[in-house]
Amino acid sequence: MQAASVKVVFKDLPLHSVTNEEVLEVVKEYCKVSSEVKYANLWFEGKMTSVRNGDCFIYIPVTEVSKLPAVLEISGSCSRVFKPPNLTICKRCSNQGHHPTDPKCPARTTDVIIEMLETF
Ligand SMILES: [Zn+2]
C-alpha cells in the first residue's frame, strides 16, 4: 500500500543562490521524497501572487518524515524544517492520523482475525 505523504516546509533559504537540486540532494540524504521542490508564493489581499515568499516545500512519505532533522544545512545556508504538528503514524499500516489500536485502521481487521486463529 502507498503510504500518505505530508508537506514539509523549508524556511530561511536564500531564493536565488540555492537550486532545487541542491535542496533535494540534501533532503534525500535523510529520507525519501514524494515530490519535486515546490515554492510558496506571497498572498496579497486574499489572492496568491506570483511573488515567492522564500519558503519551499517538498512532499515526503509520512513514514520518512521523522528521519529529517529540524535544521538542515543546504549549500552553506541553514534552513529550518517545518513538519506537520502532531503527526500520528500507525505502526501497523503506516498510514497517518490513527493509532494501531484504532478500529478504522485498514490493517487491523485481518490482524485481529489472525490473532484469534492463533489462539485456537
Ligand atoms: Zn493503521
Short description:
The protein has helices spanning 20-28, 108-119; strands at 5-11, 38-44, 47-61, 71-74, 77-82.
Model description:
The chain is α+β, with helices and mostly antiparallel strands. The protein folds into two domains: 1-86, RRM (RNA recognition motif) domain (Alpha-Beta Plaits); 88-120, no CATH class. It is 18% helix and 32% strand. It contains two helices and five strands, in the order E-H-E-E-E-E-H. It has helices spanning 20-28, 108-119; strands spanning 5-11, 38-44, 47-61, 71-74, 77-82. The chain has a five-stranded antiparallel beta sheet, with helices on one face. It is elongated, with a radius of gyration of 19 Å. The protein starts with a strand and ends with a helix. Bound molecules: zinc ion (ZN). Zinc ion binds at residues 90, 92-93, 95, 98, 100, 105, 107. Zinc ion (ZN) binds next to loops.
Structural class: alpha+beta
Give the neighbour order of strands across the main sheet: 2-3-1-5-4
Order of helix and strand elements from N to C terminus: EHEEEEH
**Low confidence ranges:** none
Could you describe the largest sheet, including whether it forms a barrel?
Answer: 5 strands, antiparallel
Output mean pLDDT: 85
**Helical proportion, percent range:** 10-25%
The CATH class of the largest domain is identified as Alpha Beta
According to DSSP, the number of beta strands is 5
Helical run tally = 2
